[in-house]
């Protein structure tokens, strides 16, 4: 599904290297977690994959089902099935949440050569998915994320993901700032979307989320690289011992 080889990335405006040779393969149907100290490049990796500007790719490749992601516009990457749930969801004053979702869903359907959803079908679908995530009707009518609590913003990201039905879902610290109940809702939302044809890259600081979203593989990122990969037990090791031992091993 997602194949990243030797990816190196600099900040565009400064002479600063952030990703220093990332190798990562996520097969179809699998859930991979990335953990790692603050500042190790986890968000940068998710931004570069989704096409945020401000970064210069200086080497390596990133493909989605064999298609070169790095050459595509962000909306083309989305149409190809890539989705990023932001670490810091953006507020969009003046744009109703429901309008935003409907526009995004129909733009993607159009890009895939499918017909637009009828207003009725869209409403039915969005209401059912919002209900599962305990997002009420009022939140659907308000401008995107404006005045939402931290937890509501994160649940709204999952609602977008559920509506867009992407193939490759990247969640950047979607659990940060959530209380236990909200985290469970988010995890349930992700688990409901797990399928053979869909993969997840879950960036998290906490082992707790991985109790609910069982990963196939856990990767540790530090200093712009994946320094170790293993099974779910690697997340437990980090929870118990921190990163010190792993960083010493790397050094
Ligand atoms: P993580 O998500 O693992 O905490 P980030 O990808 O956010 O790490 O950041 C990696 C490093 O790159 C940090 O040192 C951060 O300060 C730096 N960085 C990322 N984006 C920018 C930017 N736009 N301007 C300046 N520094 C940046
Ligand atoms: Mg961080
Ligand atoms: Mg981050």
UniProtKB/TrEMBL annotation:
Domain ABC transporter span(s) in chain numbering: 2-248
Keyword Nucleotide-binding applies: yes
- Coiled coil ranges: none
The UniProt keywords, alphabetically, are: ATP-binding, Nucleotide-binding
Q: Which Gene3D superfamilies match?
A: P-loop containing nucleotide triphosphate hydrolases
* GO MF term set: ATP binding; ATP hydrolysis activity
Which Pfam family is one of those matched by this entry?
ABC_tran
Q: Does the keyword Thylakoid apply?
A: no
NCBIfam families according to UniProt? sufC
Per the record, the similarity remark reads: Belongs to the ABC transporter superfamily. Ycf16 family.
Q: By its UniProt entry, which PANTHER family does this protein fall under? A: ABC TRANSPORTER I FAMILY MEMBER 6, CHLOROPLASTIC (PTHR43204:SF1)
This protein is called Fe-S cluster assembly ATP-binding protein
């Amino acid at each position: 599904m997602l194949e990243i080889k030797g990816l190196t990335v600099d900040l565009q405006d400064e002479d600063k290297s952030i990703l220093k040779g990332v190798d990562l393969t996520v097969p179809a149907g699998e859930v991979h977690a990335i953990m790692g100290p603050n500042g190790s490049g986890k968000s940068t990796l998710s931004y570069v994959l989704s096409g945020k500007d401000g970064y210069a790719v200086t080497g390596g490749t990133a493909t989605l089902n064999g298609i070169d992601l790095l050459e595509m516009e962000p909306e083309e990457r989305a149409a190809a099935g890539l989705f990023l749930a932001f670490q810091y969801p953006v507020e969009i004053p003046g744009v109703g949440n429901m309008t935003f979702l409907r526009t995004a869903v129909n733009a993607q359907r159009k890009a895939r050569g499918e017909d637009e959803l009828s207003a009725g079908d869209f409403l039915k679908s969005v209401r059912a998915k919002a209900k599962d995530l305990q997002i009420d009707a009022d939140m659907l009518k308000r401008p995107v994320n404006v005045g939402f609590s931290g937890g509501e913003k994160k649940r709204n990201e999952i609602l977008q993901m559920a509506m867009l039905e992407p193939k490759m879902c990247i969640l950047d610290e979607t659990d940060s700032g959530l209380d236990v109940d909200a985290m469970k809702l988010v995890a349930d939302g992700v688990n409901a979307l797990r399928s053979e044809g869909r993969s997840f890259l879950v960036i998290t600081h906490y082992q707790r989320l991985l109790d609910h979203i069982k990963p196939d593989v856990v990767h540790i990122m530090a200093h712009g690289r994946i320094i170790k990969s293993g099974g779910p037990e690697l997340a437990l090791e980090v929870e118990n011992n921190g990163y010190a031992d792993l960083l010493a091993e790397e050094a």
